[in-house]
Each structure stands twice: as structure tokens, then as C-alpha cells.
Amino acid sequence: MFNIHERSLQMTNQTTRTQQPHESNKPIDHVRLGTIRAAIWQNTDSQGRVRYNATFERGYLDQKGDWQSSTSYGRDDLLNLAKVADMANTRIHEIQAEDREHADRNAATAAAASEHVATR
Q: In sequence order, which ranges of the chain are alpha helices (DSSP H)?
């Protein structure tokens, strides 16, 4: 849900990775454009493979002035929805690249440690 303190009415390109994978069932990241926001989720399938998904919501002020969220989009929201979907896709690819780099560093460190032990 949108928080009134968030700058959700500004046309900003915000991306922030909020936590490490597997900490909880919360999104690992968000991207936003105006009042449209995507949450990026990390899941592990039954074979242990990591998968990423995105959910979308639109923030709006209700009659009382409180922020609410909806998954219904009007005609004027659709272009921003498409742009946020593109931003989410890009961010997921960035996260996957970060994951691969981390795995490669871990593999190189393990190989170096193994080689060091073998030469003793």
C-alpha cells in the first residue's frame, strides 16, 4: 500500500533493493513511476531455481485524503503501467546479473581456497 510520505505523485524513476533474498515473503525491490508501482518478488521453485516476478499497483488518494492502492488502471494509467513493467523487467535482469556475479565470486573464492589447501 502507498504511504502518504512517499513521493508517489512525482514522475520519478525510483529503484531501491530493500532486502536480501529469502529474508521474508516481502518484495526484494520496487520500481515506481508517478503513482504506478511494481513490487519485485524472488521465489525458489521446487528444483531450487530462483525465479523473479512482479506485481503492480496504482496509488490514489481517497475522499478522506488517505492513500489507497488498486490494481485497476484507467486509460491514462496504461502508458505508465507499460513503462513500469519495462523498468521492472530491466531491474530483474540487473538483479539476476548481480546474482551471477556473486555466484562467480563465490566459486572463484572456493576454487582458490581449495587450490591453496591442495598445495600445502
A: 78-118
